[in-house]
Write a structure and sequence with these properties.
single chain; ABC transporter transmembrane region fold; 6-stranded mixed β-sheet; 10 strands; 10% strand
Length: 592
């Protein structure tokens, strides 16, 4: 409950901060609701005046009714306009804040955690709830003001109407069922909702659409989307059905009781024990009482839903703050003298039963070109992400010139890194910027981009483009040009070459989609980059499963099932006749 209250408090504080005066104008709508609740009272006075032929009373009642109605209309216009404006401001603020929070978490652990992704999915599914949080709170204030006014009018007319008020109060007690049904539906639909989006992406993305058609998946994909959508929305539909049945039951009991009360009051009016004014007010206030009951129940459910999603927002904020609370403030050195040492390092993914890396102890000497080899799933890419600070070790340390990486400012450390990953991003910008984003300080420097293209053996990719570096990449954009998988990878490698003199240059399976001739050319350039890196002690880490590409490395590290099994030069490991020699022979045999 405390996070929910904190969240609703945050909504109000955000609204006032965005526009204090507009927040105040929202209350005009509440004042108008109070005036609207008095209408049955004025109608009752008018009816009594007409019966008693009291013109003065009729005029006063008519003026009060018309005046309050006009004032209500004016107040509603001002208040609703202010509310809509504030709702848009607050909604935009929360949407931007959620995007900022998810983007500033410095590690990647959370994007591979089902619990985090499910909660984020619920936030996304209910983003309109956060956007409309202020609207919900204002509706609650309006309902509360209207309810108090209606209850006072009803109580003054005849105390028997308090029976209907009691029925309305009883309805509030059952709202806990509605809120529980909604909460259960949100949580049950989170994982199917993520699956639905994934399947839809498969059917719409060019890469997914190609496989879908080649393997004839269209019918099966449509079936699975239908099943996923059903599993996603069915809990919500079931919750809505239950709430509709509950509301219908309440309405039936309410109007049956109201009919009995009106018959009773009519008999008393005929008998002369109750005034006609009381009966007229009672008739006029009945619908208001039913509205108050249903509105209050709806408001409670809505506010509870807002509270739940505000609590989730608070959870995301606290999670991001905790994840971003990296205590390291040390700046990255200008050069490396000793190099990088991995000391007793182990890592286990969230929810996994065993470590992906176990007790890794390894020296990456300053100025060395290190090849990290092993079969798929050996843990190569995981180790790279630990070196980049994208994961936090489960156990052990990464030492940079003897200093724990945890002591460093991660942004500063990453600014002295560069990388080209196998699972690279396809930046659908101009070719200039798709490469230039590798170093934002020189994003539009065409000379630097040309140099990076040469270093990454990708100059011919840009030469073949219609307008060179100014060519838009990606056919989803007007005038855009599509590249092959190998061309995209070479653009990514060139992007990794943008930063000059990085302390750690990571090339993670850089030739996976590249032909043999280009691969040979690339490794000549990698060797040159490694020699350049030696001048400032930089480490070049080449991650690959192609053994033909690592012969020129200073050091070869062999990973197997998350453990270091061999370390040495290419010739040493071949002569050792161990795991490396076995894999090297198996791969070489395939080329004979």
């Amino acid at each position: 409950m405390k996070p929910a209250l904190r969240g609703m408090g945050l909504v109000l504080v955000t609204a006032v901060r965005m526009s204090p005066w507009q927040s105040l104008l929202c209350l005009f709508e509440t004042l108008g609701k109070v005036l609207a609740a008095l209408a049955p009272l004025f109608i009752g006075i008018f009816a009594t005046g007409a019966l008693e032929r009291d013109l003065d009373r009729m005029v006063v009642a008519a003026v009060a009714l018309v005046g309050s109605t006009a004032a209500n209309a004016a107040l509603q216009a001002v208040g609703v306009n202010a509310r809509v404006r504030q709702m848009e401001l607050v909604g935009h603020t929360f949407d931007a804040r959620i995007a900022e929070l998810t983007a500033r978490i410095p590690t990647l652990d959370h994007v591979e955690t089902a619990r985090y992704l499910d909660k984020l999915q619920i936030l996304r599914d209910n983003e309109n709830v956060l956007g409309g949080a202020l609207n919900t709170l204002i509706n609650l204030a309006n309902t509360l003001a209207y309810a108090i006014s209606v209850l006072l009018v009803a109580g003054a007319a005849d105390r028997r109407l308090l029976i209907l008020i009691a029925l309305g109060s009883a309805r509030l007690l059952t709202t806990r069922w509605s809120t529980r049904w909604e909460k259960d539906a949100e949580e049950a639909g989170a994982a199917p909702g993520r699956l639905t989006r994934h399947l839809i992406d498969l059917s719409l993305s060019p890469a997914g659409a190609a496989e879908t058609r080649v393997f004839g998946h269209q019918r099966e994909l449509r079936r699975q989307i239908g099943v996923a959508v059903g599993n996603w929305r069915r809990p919500s539909v079931r919750s809505t059905d239950r709430k509709a049945v509950l509301a219908g039951g309440h309405s039936a009991v309410f109007f049956a009781t109201a009919t009995a009360l009106l018959v009773w009051m009519t008999q008393d009016v005929i008998a002369g024990t109750v005034s006609l004014q009381s009966l007229v007010v009672a008739v006029g206030v009945l619908q208001s009482l039913q509205t108050v009951s249903s509105s209050f129940a709806g408001a409670v459910v809505s506010v509870t839903k807002v509270g739940r999603n505000c609590a989730r927002f608070i959870w995301l904020r606290d999670y991001a703050d905790a994840a971003a609370a990296h205590t390291g403030r040390r700046q990255a050195p200008d050069r490396l003298y000793d190099g990088i040492r991995i000391d007793g390092l182990s890592f286990r993914y969230s929810g996994a039963r065993r470590d992906s890396l176990t007790d890794i102890t390894l020296d990456l000497p300053a100025g060395a070109v290190v090849a990290l080899v092993g079969e798929n799933g050996a843990g190569k890419s995981t180790l790279v992400k630990l070196l980049a600070g994208l994961y936090r070790p489960t156990r052990g340390r990464v030492l940079v010139d003897g200093r724990d990486l945890a002591e460093f400012d991660l942004t500063a450390w990453r600014s002295r890194m560069s990388a080209a990953f196998q699972d690279h991003t396809r930046f659908e910008f101009t070719a200039q910027r798709s490469v230039g984003v590798g170093d934002l300080a020189v994003l539009d420097d065409s000379e630097r981009v040309h140099r990076a293209l040469e270093d990454g053996a990708a100059a011919d990719v840009v030469t073949a483009l219609p307008t060179g570096l100014s060519t838009q990449l990606g056919t989803t954009w007007p005038g855009g040009v599509e590249l092959s998988g190998g061309q995209w990878q070479r653009i990514a490698i060139a992007r990794g070459m943008m930063r000059q003199s990085p302390l750690l240059l990571v090339l993670d399976e850089p030739t996976a989609a590249i032909d043999a001739a280009t691969e040979h050319s690339l490794f000549e350039r990698y060797s040159a980059a490694g020699r350049h890196a030696r001048r400032h002690g930089g480490v070049t880490l080449l991650v690959t499963h192609r053994f033909s590409t690592v012969a020129t490395a200073d050091l070869v590290v062999v990973l197997d099932q998350g453990r270091v099994v061999e370390v040495g030069s290419h010739s040493e490991l071949v002569s050792h006749r161990g795991k490396y020699a076995e894999l090297h022979e198996l791969q070489a045999r395939g080329y004979r």
